[in-house]
Amino acid sequence: MSAEPAFLLHRRPYRETSALVDLLTLHHGRIRAVAQGGQRPTSKSRQRLQPFTPLLVTWRGERELKRLNLMESRGATALLAGEGLLCGFYANEIATRLLPLELPAGNVFAFYTALLEALPVPAARALALRRYEWSLLEVLDATPRFCTPDGGALDPHAHYRFDAASRAFIPAAKGLDGRTLRYIDHHDWQEPTLSNALKAVMRAALAPHLGTTALRSRELMRDLAQRRQR
């Protein structure tokens, strides 16, 4: 096979000296593979297999667990720190948890690449994250429906909460107003006043697919926020 652009999502020890890795690839979505020698301190594969580094990889194997054959860097590692780094960990964590193995996800790859470019810039960070989250929901066929469960239009003066069963919005005493949800539906996402509402919608839509286990990246983000308040 020809070399495939990829990013490392997750790596853990496998047997004595190898590593088990999850990669986000351009044409094959998430793959899981064994990187032989990936745990040896001096191995080239360990040095190359770093988060946020553009890679070129090949692999072999017909089953779910592949074996990496070739791994090369195809660019510089994104220089992330602080909140930007934690957002990068979050992006990797939700892709590892949400994407089924070998489900083509070209848009996810594109928005992940754009996200890495945006994360060092605080003003660009939130919008890039929301677009990346939306791409994950799209590939899962799980994007919110900006209507009531029966397909009715949202009242701009009413308030709503997301209903996971129907992927739509139901009236609520508290929640997001219909006008804001209409803006989101039309993808007017650059409006600064939509930032919190966008985050709330994405979190609600992703929650049923992430399960009940807490995201480690969110816990680290909360810790960082608490330290800043001291």
From TrEMBL:
Domain DNA replication/recombination mediator RecO N-terminal: from-to ranges: 4-72
* InterPro entries on file: DNA_rep/recomb_RecO_N, NA-bd_OB-fold, RecO, RecO_C
Which top-level group of life is the source organism from? Bacteria
Keyword entries, A-Z = DNA damage, DNA recombination, DNA repair
Q: Does the keyword Transferase apply?
A: no
Q: Quick check: keyword DNA repair in the entry?
A: yes
- Function, as annotated: Involved in DNA repair and RecF pathway recombination.
Q: Which family does it belong to?
A: Belongs to the RecO family.
Q: What is this protein called?
A: DNA repair protein RecO
- Organism for this UniProt entry: Vreelandella janggokensis
